[in-house]
Amino acid sequence: MKRTRYRVRVTDVHVGGDVHQIILGGIGSIPGKTILEQRDFLRDRADDLRRIVLDEPRGGHPSHFADLVLPAKDPSAVAGFVIMEYMGYPLFSGSNTMATAIALVEEGHIPLSDGLHTLMLESPGGLVGVEVEVREAKVLSVTFRPDDTASLVTGDLSVMVEGRGEVAYDLVWAGCWYAVVSAERYGFNLSRDEEAAQGQFAYELMEALARLENPIHPLLGDQGRVALVLFAAIPKIGSTTDFTRRISPVVYPRSVSRCPAGTGTTAAVAQMVAKGLMSRGQTLEAVSSWDTSFSGDCYHIQPDRGVRVAVTGHGWIICRKEIILDSTDPLTSIATIRKLLSDSF
Fold this sequence. Notes:
- By secondary structure, the protein is of the alpha+beta class.
- The chain is built from five helices and 20 strands.
- It has two domains: 5-147 and 317-340, Diaminopimelate Epimerase, Chain A, domain 1; 151-305, Diaminopimelate Epimerase, Chain A, domain 1 (Roll), CATH 3.10.310.
- 17% of the residues lie in helices and 40% in strands.
- The longest helix is centred in the middle third of the chain and has 16 residues, at 195-210.
- The protein is globular and about 60 Å long.
């Protein structure tokens, strides 16, 4: 077989400790009239790209994510992006949005002067407004405001988990399904050394929930299984925000997020509003097991207690790299993406 090598240009951005690999070059045109259709093409017909970036021998760490930057389809957006995770291809992710915005600005794809700027990005789930604060070519903070409404769909549920008995949880929609679990009730301090224990507990809970029928969103219908668990501590009065709360999101199967996650922060706010603990205009500082934090500003509450949350976080570029894809490498399958690769040498 003739040997061919390709280059894929990637910038790594860590957001609260989670590493997001932003693919900025080396991939050509992706079929699809919308970003969602392009996401579906990658998921259904070209999954090798996700596996190459996230799996061994290049990846393999559960706190790694990937985002493929694409030309926007909507003229109001400056760029589009497809999110790739171990769990698959979510419609939206807060930390992935933050990391993509940081890479686009700091790598010069969207050159901005010092100050506060509003951008529109296009995710598979639709348009998302992003506010970036820039100083000396560094993005100091990123705030996103998704159009989706988050809500506690059903509270005070429980499911039998083998070896643990009945496990109580609240079912929350925050752009994806979360089972929100009391950290104190199950003995978690939400510290860094609990990562393995949190991952195992969450895995067992999600496997138990998978044996039930998928939850049905009241407006969106069947959005798949519950693939995330949020361990959440009792909220406290904050020093610089209205509230502070330790949370730890876990993505199926056992990926413990080092940051509070955009959707995790949103889910924590939605649960607090539904339980009467938080009001419109108040802000939650969500603190992860790694002691990194996002802030969630509850800027809108629906009559049914659904909420819209603006989430602010921070990130840093930590690596620029070329991924080399060699057609003779038995551990690198490029069969489904060979026609998409645009930089051979």
